[in-house]
Amino acid sequence: MTDTAPAPERDRVVGLSRAADGHPVPLAGRRALPRVGDDRLTSWAAAIGVALLALFLRLWRLGEPHQFEFDETYYAKDAWSLLNFGYVREYADDANEQILDGTVTGLWQDDPSMIVHPEVGKWLIALGQQLFGMDPFGWRFSAAVVGALSVLVMCRLARRLTGSTLLGCTAGLLLSLDGLHFVLSRVALLDIFLMFFTLSAVACVVADRDWHRAKLARLLGGADATATGWGPVRGLLFRPWLLGAGVCFGLAVGTKWTALYPLAAFGLLVWLWSAGARRSFGVRWATLRSAVVDGATAFVHLVVVALAVYLMSWTGWLIHAEEYEQHLSATQYTHHDGGQTWPTRDEPDAAGPGEVVQSLRSLWFYHRDLYAFHTHFLNDSDHTYQSMPSGWLLLNRPVGVAAETDIQPGVDGCDAPEGSDCLRQVLLIGTPTIWWGGILALLLSVATWLGARDWRAGVVVVGTASTWLPWLAYDDRPIFLFYAALTLPFVVLALVLAMGRLIGSSRAPTPRRTVGVVVAGSFVVLTLVNFAWFWPIWTNQLLTHSEWLDRIWFSRWI
User: Fold this and answer.
1) How many domains does the chain contain in total?
2) Structural contact between residues 148 and 54, judged by C-beta atoms closer than 8 angstroms
3) What is the Cα 554 distance to its own chain's centre?
4) Which residue, of 353, 377, 401, is where some domain finishes?
């Protein structure tokens, strides 16, 4: 750009005269302006509409099958115990049969039960039981609602990343049409809650990136301002969106510990984004300086807040710490590799603040036993449906959570030919078009992040890496395909970002835009067809054996 350029154009650029696509590079303050349009009402209405559609699909015949599906046998009863006693108790051996027959009293013992996951997800399951009772609809209701809410969050996050209401709603629709998400929204497992809180935390982190840059510009005096020295500090010590992310991450870790990995990864990303923002405003040595002023702030908002929320989620346990000290302080997990009984077991009961400290120490020893369970006790175990995490993106081994087989012709509406039979099944498997297409989209995101430095692709890559790759270190114990539900939102974001690149940013009718719209639209339609095809094996529908085999594409899916 030369000095002969018109003044308004000359004032808009700094550093590089033009970007790789030929457009002028605006000043940092101008780049900090909101990227989304002014269709706030329309975008919210559309996102809520997609979420309501997802909710309808998830509530449809939610109480079927009338049985405990897979690990519902643990979480539904644990939730009921939390709701009625404040902590998880042991139960009678025939509790399942009696509960399904309508009996919910006289089944629980006084001794606490050794639970191996935190309690947030189970408390949410208990909310559905409080509303609708101790039956399949009641213990699945909260999962359905949270699944629909995660679709709403996805719509808003994708819109913020792309600046497009249409692409945002497409992301929400794709998430709602994935089989893993759909089935997990219809069973009382913990993973849908884990995914929702983690996705919400990431959405808050992305919103904080916009907020931080806009606040920097305002503190510096306007869109054309530059910074000196460290740049603004005091005005950025409180970051509301980052506080929300800390709360959500605390609830995610309070559901399953695996949320610790994305917490750490996105915490580092917040620091790097903050450093990049300061650098764009002219701060020298921005990475080091940001580590002091922004890194410390981010640590408090994310890690300290998440820890506080996590500890508060154990309030019921802490109130009943004495029961755990007396009955679970000398388990097989405690004595693994020569471990010792909790010291708090034989200590005199404290009072006042000392009692709080004593209960927290007991909780620490309890966590030590849980860690031993997850890292050592399960190493020699195996399971029919366990799968290698290296193949999760390929949908290598789905999980059958419920099945009724050998239904004879003429029974229960079975119209199979003579010599064959019918069956019902609920299979935890993703929608193939989303996951297989997502592999290509993820590769594109890696190339875009590294090659074009597109920060939005960084969200996808960091999210995928932090929710999937850590499982590769635990492939010697039973782990399951549905753990990849935590990676699913980033697969969907990769797909939508790829659609956005195909369509392009210009609204002018061009051959490239036409091809992009056709390809993106065809993918969405194909996903709808794929969802409809697998619907019967996600919703316990009656199928002949031949119809079922038409949907089981590989022998590993049986």
Assistant:
1) 3
2) yes
3) 28
4) 377
Distance of alpha carbon 233 from alpha carbon 291, whole angstroms: 12
* Amino acid (1-letter code) at residue 461: V
The vertex-185 CA angle with 180 and 190, nearest 5°, equals 90
Q: State both tokens at 62.
A: 């939610």
Question: What's the maximum distance between 2 C-alpha atoms anywhere in the chain?
Answer: 88
> Is the pLDDT assigned to residue 486 strictly greater than 90?
yes
DSSP state of 113: P
CB 503 within 8 A of CB 513: yes
H helices then E strands: how many in the chain? 22, 7
* Residues 354 and 426 occupy one common structural domain: no
Interior/surface letters 295-326, b for 16+ CB within 10 angstroms, e for the rest: bebbebbbbebbeebbeebbebbbebbbbbbe
Residue whose structure tokens are 């959570």 = 401
Q: Is 139 helix (H, G, I), strand (E, B) or coil?
A: helix
286 pLDDT band (50/70/90 cuts)? confident
Q: Show the CA angle centred on residue 159, arms to residues 156 and 162, nearest 5°.
A: 150
Q: Which domain holds residue 83?
A: 40-153
Cα–Cα distance for residue pair 361/344, rounded to 1 Å:
7
φ, ψ of residue 504 to 5 degrees: the values are 90, 165
Q: 426: which strand partners?
A: 402
Kind and range of the H or E element at 405?
A: strand 399-407
Contact criterion met (CB below 8 Å) for 180 and 488: yes
Measured CA to CA, the distance from residue 211 to residue 209 in angstroms comes to 5
Question: 329 lies in a domain?
Answer: yes
User: Six-digit token pair at 305?
Assistant: 């807040």
The Cα 391–Cα 429 span in angstroms is 13
Percent of the chain exceeding pLDDT 90 equals: 68
**Interval 409-420: pLDDT, tens:** 989 899 999 889
Residue linked to tokens 């009921």: 80
504 shares a domain with 368: no
Q: String of b and e for 454-491 (b: at least 16 CB within 10 Å)?
A: bbbbbbbbbbbbbbbeebeebeebebbbbbbbbbbbbb
Pull the structure tokens for residue 258: 């695996």
462 and 320 together in one domain: no
Using an 8 Å Cβ cutoff, are 432 and 398 in contact? no
Q: Tell me if 20 is assigned to some domain.
A: no
Q: What is the pLDDT of residues 289-313, one digit of tens each?
A: 899 999 999 999 999 999 999 999 9
How far apart CA 430 and CA 387 sit, in angstroms, is: 14
Residue ranges in 236-393 assigned as alpha helix (H): 240-253, 260-280, 286-299, 305-312, 315-319, 321-327, 353-372
**Nearest by Cα to 441 from 170, 226, 224, 241:** 170
Tokens for 383, please give them.
């399971």
